[in-house]
Amino acid sequence: MGMISRYDPRGGLADFWRVFRRPDPLRWPILAASAMLTGTMLYIFAPATMYAEPARPEITYVTSFAPDRTEEEIAAAIAENQRVQDALRRLEEQRVEERKAIYRSLGRATGLDVDAMEARIRAEEAAAEDARQTGATRALNPATDTASAR
Asked: CA 48 from chain center: how many Å?
């Protein structure tokens, strides 16, 4: 609190008012010059904020195909892509089968009945597929659903 009392502006304002009240012929011109100088500095150093329009972005089109491709080239590219996708799909199926074979051998080595487990899994998958097909049939033909509900 002691620091705030050192910066009390009342004493400075009282001194200003005492000096300004004296009958001096230059007090009004000095006040006007001071106000003009302050106003000029504010006008120069604090201009209105102006926002420039953002620059329009340059669009670069990247094409991965030749623009003058023929229908035959397009069909050949599609066929080649399909061959690659089929090869990848076959490779993935082979990997899945290899993993299943490894797990089968591991199960047999640990004494599990792997064949019974696979039969149960196939039965569950068939039941799920049948339920899905039945739900699709009911969605396509609601009349069969109301007849079976009676």
From this structure: 36
CA gap 57, 55 in Å, rounded: 6
Per-residue pLDDT, averaged over 132-148, amounts to: 70
* Model confidence pLDDT, tens digit, residues 121-130: 999 999 999 9
pLDDT digits (tens, 9 = 90+) for 65-110: 888 889 999 999 999 999 999 999 999 999 999 999 999 999 999 9
The Cα 109–Cα 83 span in angstroms is 39
Question: Which residues, 6 or more positions from 60, have their beta carbon under 8 angstroms from its beta carbon?
Answer: none
- pLDDT of 43 higher than 80: yes
The encoded tokens of residue 56 equal: 């329009």
Q: Largest alpha-carbon pair distance within the chain?
A: 117
* Per-residue pLDDT at 147 exceeds 70: no
Q: pTM of this prediction?
A: 0.41
> Within 2-141, where are the H helices?
2-6, 10-21, 27-45, 71-109, 114-140
Rounded to whole angstroms, the Cα distance separating 78 from 59 reads 29
Task: Please report, as a single letter, which amino acid is at residue 61.
Answer: Y
Q: Are the beta carbons of 104 and 114 closer than 8 angstroms?
A: yes
